[in-house]
Amino acid sequence: MYFKRIGAFMICGLAAGVLCGCGGGGGSGSADPVVWYMRKPVDNMSSYDVVMAEANKIIEEEIGTTLEFRFIEYGSYDEKLNVLCASGDKFDICHIDDTAKFQQFIKSGVFLPIDDLLQEYGQDILEKQDSISADFSKFEGKQYAVDDQGAYSVAQSWVFKKDLVDKYNFDYKNVKSLDDLEPYLKLIKENEPGITPIHHELINFINQDMSYSYVDGIVFDEKEERFVLNYELPAEVEYFRKKHDFYKKGYIASDAISKDGSSERSSGKYAVFNNNGYYSEDGSKSSSFSGFPCVETFVGNTVIAPKTSGRNAISVTSQHPEKAMQLMNLIWKDDYLLNTLAYGIEGVNYTVNEERTKELGKKSVNVQSGNKQTWAIWHNWLGYLWGQWDSEWNSAESLENMKKTNENAVLSKTMGFTFDTEPVKAEVAKVIAAAQEVNKVISIGCMDDFETYMESACNKLRDAGSDVVIDEMNRQYKEWKQSNSGQ
After folding, report:
1. How would you write the pLDDT of the chain (487 residues) with one tens digit per residue?
2. CA distances from 322 to 231, 274, 326, 349, 359 (A)
3. 3-class DSSP string for 106-172
């Protein structure tokens, strides 16, 4: 079953309602816009027409085409992108952050190799691209996507609702572990009946001795230099055991497994939750995302691994791949276009902070947040992250900190290694499916008996073929290491 684009401002979708919150037309009447799929960044994108009209003035003038975003609801994006690609839907660009899925798409012939397109139409991308990400989207010597820029090592934090911290005079800055956090959760449980003490997606466990792999459920043990089952690492097991204890004590919502993570974090119903991927010392990043005042405590930095980055790929069904590359390059080149697509329109989606602008010597904006936010696309989904204007999303200082974090972060020993799933592709698919089946229960802690469930989860992964996959991953890694003796 194929998609048919039937008009610039018509609703688009598969018969079963595949797309949600689809973008409208190109904005300036272009009959053949560049179509770009990505996750819907915020629930309310009602400023679509006005933002795209402004952006497409520039795009049409510079490269003779227009842009049409098609947004898919956040939680169903991966599944629906699978359907789109399998059906042969005609589109130009899609954003994809699952590396294993990305490689599967490459092998299925879904994406174009873009080396020649980059050389001819992507000079600004090549000039501004971080050297650390240059090989993230290469497969068998060819490049298949333009990688996101960003904090490849993510500075993560615990985020606290500021009014509650102030009310109970809680010393959040000295929280270094879940044990340190527990007395505060108990206090909230006993005294704030309308507040859930902690959001179930508190934080991914920060462990400098492991990095995530291309296959869900399997991680790389940096000390032992081998791939292993995620839930057999002692430190990981202890972390999730503690979350199970929190669940039993009522610190995590009893119905957490049915709740959407993104909207719940900004609901104001949680005393403690995770950040949106980046730590800000003054809490401004989380305050902007949540729509209410927050404070944060730094937890740690993730290891930089090949799986870190998302990317934008060009579909083989694109009828004008040259225009698609020209568009991406233009966004990397033109800071005003980048920031318009990210922040929206002055006076509608943001105001200029004149005092801060004068202080910095560069543009600073005040963006809408929470339920007032009618437009947002994260800069790194679009292009040149470091070209963004100073704002509550990322202040000039936080951007500088991200750069420093990248420069000083721990690099996984797997950097440069690409796992070829072909020899075990059936097992990889089964292992990923099995991991996705158990991951949410484990991360929330909502099992009846922890030990029994963990044993069952590991057996489920083994039954799916994890031992076969791990053996193949370790074999390929050893061969790669031997042929790259300097790595």
Report:
1. 222 222 332 233 333 334 444 444 444 444 589 999 999 998 899 999 999 999 999 999 999 999 999 999 988 898 999 999 999 999 999 999 877 788 888 988 999 999 999 999 999 999 998 877 767 788 878 899 999 887 787 777 889 999 999 999 999 999 988 899 999 999 999 999 999 999 887 665 667 788 888 788 999 999 999 999 988 888 889 989 999 999 999 999 999 888 766 667 778 899 998 876 667 778 887 887 788 999 999 888 888 877 656 899 999 999 999 999 999 999 999 999 999 999 999 999 999 999 999 999 999 999 988 788 999 999 999 988 899 999 988 889 888 878 887 877 888 898 878 788 889 989 999 999 999 899 989 989 999 999 999 999 999 999 999 999 999 999 999 998 998 765 4
2. 45, 40, 6, 31, 41
3. HHCCCECCCHHHHHHHCHHHHHHCCHHHCCCCEECCEECCEECCCCCCCEEEEEEEHHHHHHHCCCH
Asked if the structure places residue 476 within a domain, the reply is no
Question: pTM here?
Answer: 0.69
Cα 228 to chain centroid distance, Å, stands at: 24
Interatomic CA distance for residues 167 and 173, integer angstroms: 15
∠ CA 110-49-128, rounded to 5°:
55
Does residue 363 lie within any of the structural domains?
Answer: yes
For the chain, the domain total comes to 1
Q: 422-459: b or e for each residue (b if 16 or more CB lie within 10 Å)?
A: eebeebbbbbbebbeebeeebbbbbbeebeebbeebbe
Torsion, CA 223, CA 426, CA 464, CA 419, rounded to 10 = 10
Interacting residues of 92 by C-beta distance below 8 A, sequence separation 6+: 34, 35, 36, 314, 315, 318, 319, 320, 321, 323, 324
Asked if residues 457 and 445 have their Cβ atoms less than 8 Å apart, the reply is no
Residue 135 lies in a domain: yes
- Tokens standing for 326? 């020209």
CATH number of the structural domain spanning residue 322: 3.40.190.10
Does some domain include residue 12?
no
